[in-house]
């Protein structure tokens, strides 16, 4: 039986109502092509694209766009050699790249959150699953710096960044993936859900971290572990590969990881 | 002679045409109060406020707002204990807090950029001063990782994050302060101004860093040193204190630094 790009895209979007003005869609290729194999990834960087080609798949499902900004910025990439080379390489190869972002996060539960909880081995601690956050009740008594080390170890990442009181005992923890680490998402978790610590992907540096610092200085201990945008969303794209493997047992399905983009000096 | 809050605000805004919809303004206090002393800072955190009070100044000029988001988010802080405590403390103390952001960055040259260049001891290397960036021609042959270590040492900060090719020789360097490290500002510097490396405050993690990684993988070596939002703007607020000291020799003028908000684990 022939499986087309359209079939796979329809399947991964099937649980979500139509989203207006979505960033999701085909960046390269045609929906009528036959799928020979699938890879999922956080972002279709040049390294990821080369790895997808070497795995001989022709559909790459990427959470973020290939072109370095959430929405297209008019004129920005015209005449840019990195853009020109990357585009030429993908077009020549015949690889189809599909961005799966809004429909991914809108599924309930969000597979990006599920993948992260799985990798953290904290699924059993989930007390409440909100549309944009998970609230966990921790079983034992872990200090904030111990939570940070635990996350670092479970995700096998080279560093995390900790704000707030490193020695406070964390009984309730909130999780915010991707760029949801800003104050608009954080305050409702600290204040209304009573979390002691938030594990976040990325967020503006003087929003939640400075709120947490002020809170500590008002005698209300709080903490924040910032793990990185890609680091918070890669596990979910690995989880998506597992789902696709079950849905299409006749197709090879891979997850392609990336190395951390930054080194800390 | 009496110097009022209004006098000082008018003076620091005097070189810039009126800005519509500005975030700048008084967060606490009245413009007619007499100024007893001034402190400048990156952000009026609780620690900074206490230090300003212990220095017995009554005007705190802060680059970012006291309340954790660039613009007010409707309803977010209602019932929040950190907000309530901080507001009560400042109101009770009589401290005036003025946010100096848009008018600060719109001065040409931007004092935030001048302060950073001074602390980096790179003023003599400036080849071109753009409204939102500085372009430097480096005198010797410095590798990207050496630039990173140089910046870290000159700013006395505990860590920087490096993306791209650590071993490339950097002859031209671009500087972007604050939250200007995104792709819309970075590509014109790499592509049109031919910079090898950008020193940036903060920017989205999968924009410029991933562009730089792709560029390296296309054989066009580039690098990025991300130093932190506060770290890139504090020197400019110290520089503003120097300017105010010269303008108001009769007043005590202080700069209040902050410790880094994150620790790396």
UniProtKB/TrEMBL annotation, chains A, B:
- Gene Ontology cellular-component terms listed: cytoplasm
Family assignment from sequence similarity: Belongs to the GTP cyclohydrolase I type 2/NIF3 family.
The record, for SUPFAM superfamilies, names: NIF3 (NGG1p interacting factor 3)-like (SSF102705)
Organism of derivation: Paenibacillus endophyticus
Any keyword Metal-binding? yes
Please tell me where a divalent metal cation binds in this chain: 63, 229, 233
Keyword Metal-binding in the entry? The reply is: yes
UniProt xrefs under Gene3D superfamilies? NIF3 (NGG1p interacting factor 3)-like
- Keywords, alphabetical: Hydrolase, Metal-binding
A molecular function (GO) held by this record is: metal ion binding
The UniProt entry, under PANTHER family, shows: GTP CYCLOHYDROLASE 1 TYPE 2 HOMOLOG, NGG1 INTERACTING FACTOR 3
Record-given protein name:
GTP cyclohydrolase 1 type 2 homolog
């Amino acid at each position: 039986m022939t499986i087309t790009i359209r079939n796979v895209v329809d399947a991964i979007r099937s649980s979500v109502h139509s989203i207006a003005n979505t960033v999701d869609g085909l960046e390269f290729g045609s929906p009528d092509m036959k799928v020979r194999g699938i890879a999922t990834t956080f972002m279709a960087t040049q390294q990821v694209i080369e790895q997808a080609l070497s795995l001989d798949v022709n559909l790459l499902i990427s959470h973020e766009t290939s072109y370095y900004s959430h929405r297209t910025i008019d004129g920005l990439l015209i005449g840019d050699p990195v853009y020109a080379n990357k585009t030429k390489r993908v077009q020549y190869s015949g690889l189809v790249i599909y961005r799966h972002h809004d429909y991914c996060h809108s599924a309930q539960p969000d597979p990006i959150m599920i993948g992260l909880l799985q990798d953290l081995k904290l699924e059993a601690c989930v007390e409440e699953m909100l549309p944009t956050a998970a609230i966990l009740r921790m079983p034992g008594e872990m200090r904030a710096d111990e939570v940070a080390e635990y996350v670092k170890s479970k995700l096998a990442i080279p560093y995390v960044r900790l704000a707030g009181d490193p020695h406070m005992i964390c009984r309730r923890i909130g999780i915010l993936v991707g760029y949801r680490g800003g104050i608009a998402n954080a305050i409702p978790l600290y204040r209304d859900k009573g979390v002691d610590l938030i594990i976040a992907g990325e967020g503006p540096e003087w929003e939640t971290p400075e709120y947490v610092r002020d809170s500590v200085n008002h005698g209300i201990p709080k903490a924040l572990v910032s793990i990185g945008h890609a680091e918070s969303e890669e596990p979910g794209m690995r989880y998506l590969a597992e789902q696709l493997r079950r849905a299409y047992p006749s197709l090879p399905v891979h997850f392609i990881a990336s190395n951390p983009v930054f080194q800390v000096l």
